[in-house]
Structure to design on (738 residues):
């Protein structure tokens, strides 16, 4: 009897394991999944009762804004919403693993625009939804849309946040704002620096993951680039050397701890009155806390300005677009979420409550945004680095190499040689698709 | 009758074992073999519609010219040797002190366990904040002793020291607990006989305690050494490998190849070499332990 029970148990266990086989994943080149249901959003009552929507955002203000919208969305649709968030450093892998395996764990993903080209083959083109609902795409700032959500003429995501790299500065220490050249900028920082009172010239986020972007905007404004439009690497140029030398010179004008500082630490140093300039993303803390006496020692003594124009005036763009994974089983519901999240009302609310800067043109035409005219202007020219699959490897290597140079592990020539080799290797490992040009040229 | 009983027992054994074996084959053996297979191919997971291209030993040959791999290997070796040495010496010393059944010893052991049971990510984050050169409490307290600001995480050398110190802080208690258990199990008659013969404490330690506890120490060193090679979470949150490549370790390097650059073939080759190296190190230590046990008994 015992023998038969053992046999039966073993059989049940084997069967239960074989029953857990994965279903077939759709192919990446398969035609776009089923067309949107024309009547879905217009249905009476609560059309998505019982359905669950899972949305993925970067931790921080974007996820906070999403969570704040959940009750209203659930009341309007009847669906349940789960907001999942990861820090920037791990968001890419979490999203891409889901996308490439077509598991459909997420119905909406907030995509950093530098990942657009890499994610595009695994995202649902939104063209049909836009046409069906007459969704107005002209409301977005043209330059932001071109760099975020629009990939090779196909809309794969709707922009929901955009910030140009701007500098926050102390109006009492730099009454004339940020100068027009990097040399003048360093002179102004040196004049404003007062170590006896613990005030450095500048605070910069130079930890691995942030430093690459800092190098990029200096390089671009000086007229340099990673590569030409045909992807020939051009980093071994006088501009790249000058950009690296500029960053090295900033070491005398900043807290030595900068090399280990992320965005939070560099913003906090500025809010504590320990730096004349803060080179970071204003919407990630300064805008929200700068004028709050409980959190800032520079209330009424700070402003935002564009970075030194030097030759090109180009700055770095941080932009995010909400997209629907091809593997999602709730695409219609996901589209409803995207429409609400990117609506004018919500974007305004997100700015008021979370300091998120909207890519909508009308948002910037409001009176309350007038003091930030410089930020709005920068959005017309701000640039993003490569948006192809090689982007992550290239950016990661630039972070490492520039960090090695600034911490005296390698010299300037070695840094340039390593940058050149790293960019070539990234392009060789993940070559851009035929016909795609490097617009960042 | 006995033969039939034996056959039925054997059948029952296999019936119970089969599900486990299938489970292990599916979850461990198959992925391992697939990794070996994958290591001979070029496959970028983030490139749509890409099929694996056979590249022979290219992924393995690439390792010889990969300077970043060499840097991370050297960093990992330094980290493993220094951290394990410090942990074993400190762990054994503390174990000698707390090795008793007294109340204070149990309380001290419980307190020592705290770093060991904390999540590595929390440890990395906390130490990152405490080691901030400008706002961290570590420099604040050191300033009372007149110590100048130390750039714990921004200076390449100090960043290496910092991740070592945190690892030692986190895992010395583990070594202490194991060593304390080993010390308690030592035959007391040897020590008492030595005391009667007039041996000094130093002589007792070097001539009796250390030789007797060597087999335990070998296991401790083996486990800590293989663990040190796998260090990831704490360093990822503390420095993310920086500044530059100062704290870039092998697991972080392999993680980047696999989950940031999606180079599945190269990551698989790296993982295979890594696993084989760990297996050889483990074998070496197991042989050493056997030898030590033979010497003791």
């Amino acid at each position: 009897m015992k023998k038969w029970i053992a046999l039966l148990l073993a059989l049940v266990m084997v069967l239960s394991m074989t029953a857990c086989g994965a279903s077939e994943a759709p192919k990446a080149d398969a035609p776009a999944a089923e067309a949107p249901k024309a009547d879905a959003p217009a249905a009476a009552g609560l059309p998505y009762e019982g359905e669950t929507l899972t949305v993925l955002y970067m931790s921080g203000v974007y996820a906070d804004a999403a969570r704040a919208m959940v009750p209203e969305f659930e009341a309007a649709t009847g669906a349940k919403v789960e907001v999942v968030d990861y820090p920037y450093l791990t968001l890419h892998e979490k999203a891409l693993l889901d996308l490439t395996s077509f598991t459909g764990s997420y119905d909406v993903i907030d995509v950093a625009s530098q990942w657009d080209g890499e994610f595009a083959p695994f995202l649902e083109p939104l063209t049909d939804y836009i046409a069906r609902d007459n969704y107005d795409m002209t409301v977005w700032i043209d330059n932001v849309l071109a760099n975020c959500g629009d990939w090779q003429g196909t809309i794969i995501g709707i922009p929901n946040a955009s910030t140009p790299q701007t500098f926050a500065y102390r109006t009492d220490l730099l009454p004339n704002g940020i100068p027009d050249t990097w040399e003048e900028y360093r002179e102004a920082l040196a004049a404003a620096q007062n170590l006896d009172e613990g005030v450095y010239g500048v605070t910069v986020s130079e930890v691995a993951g942030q430093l690459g972007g800092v190098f990029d905007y200096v390089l671009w404004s000086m007229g340099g680039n990673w590569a030409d439009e045909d992807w020939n690497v051009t980093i071994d140029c006088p501009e790249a050397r000058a950009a690296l030398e500029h960053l090295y010179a900033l070491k005398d004008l900043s807290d030595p701890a900068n090399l280990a500082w992320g965005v939070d630490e560099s913003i906090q140093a500025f809010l504590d009155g320990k730096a004349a300039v803060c080179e970071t993303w204003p919407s990630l803390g300064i805008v929200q806390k700068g004028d709050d006496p409980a959190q800032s020692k520079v209330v009424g003594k700070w402003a935002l300005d564009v970075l030194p124009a030097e030759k090109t005036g180009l700055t770095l763009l941080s932009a995010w677009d909400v997209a629907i994974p091809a593997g999602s089983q709730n695409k219609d519901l996901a589209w409803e979420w995207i429409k609400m999240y990117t609506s004018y009302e919500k974007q305004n609310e997100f700015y008021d409550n979370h300091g998120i800067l909207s890519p909508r043109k009308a948002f910037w035409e409001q009176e309350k945004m007038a003091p930030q005219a410089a930020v709005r202007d920068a959005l017309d020219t701000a640039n993003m680095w490569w948006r192809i699959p090689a982007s992550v490897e290239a950016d990661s290597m630039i972070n490492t190499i520039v960090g090695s140079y600034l911490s005296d592990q390698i010299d300037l020539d070695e840094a340039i040689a390593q940058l050149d080799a790293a960019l070539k290797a990234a392009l060789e490992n993940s070559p851009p698709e035929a016909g795609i040009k490097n617009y960042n040229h | 009758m006995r033969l039939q009983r034996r056959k039925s027992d054997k059948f029952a054994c296999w019936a119970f074992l089969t599900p486990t074996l299938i489970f292990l084959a599916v979850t461990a053996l198959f992925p391992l073999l697939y990794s070996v297979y994958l290591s001979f191919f070029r496959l970028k997971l983030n490139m749509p519609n890409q099929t694996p291209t056979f590249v022979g030993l290219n992924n393995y040959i690439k390792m010889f010219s990969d300077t970043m791999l060499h840097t991370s290997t050297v960093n990992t070796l330094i980290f493993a040797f220094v951290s394990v040495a410090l942990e074993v010496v400190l762990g054994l010393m503390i174990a000698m002190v707390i090795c008793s059944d007294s109340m204070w010893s149990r309380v001290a052991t419980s307190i020592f366990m705290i770093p060991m049971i904390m999540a590595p990510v929390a440890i990395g984050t906390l130490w990152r904040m405490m080691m901030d050169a400008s706002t961290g409490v570590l420099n604040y307290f050191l300033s009372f002793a007149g110590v100048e600001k130390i750039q714990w995480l921004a200076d390449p050398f100090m960043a290496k020291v910092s991740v070592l110190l945190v690892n030692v802080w986190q895992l010395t208690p583990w070594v202490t607990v194991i060593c304390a258990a080993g010390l308690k199990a030592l035959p007391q008659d040897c020590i008492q006989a030595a005391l009667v013969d007039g041996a000094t404490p130093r002589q007792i330690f070097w001539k009796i305690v250390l030789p007797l506890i060597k087999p335990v120490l070998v296991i401790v060193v083996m486990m800590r050494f293989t663990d040190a090679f796998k260090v990831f979470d704490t360093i990822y949150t503390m420095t993310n490998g920086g500044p530059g490549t100062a704290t870039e370790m092998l697991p972080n390097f392999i993680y980047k190849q696999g989950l940031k650059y999606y180079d599945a073939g190269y990551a698989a080759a790296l993982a295979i070499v890594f696993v084989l190296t760990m297996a050889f190190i483990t074998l070496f230590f197991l042989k050493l332990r056997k030898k030590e046990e033979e010497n003791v008994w």
User: Anything to note?
Assistant: The CA atoms of residues 40 and 57 of chain B lie 6 Å apart. Chain B has twelve helices and two strands.
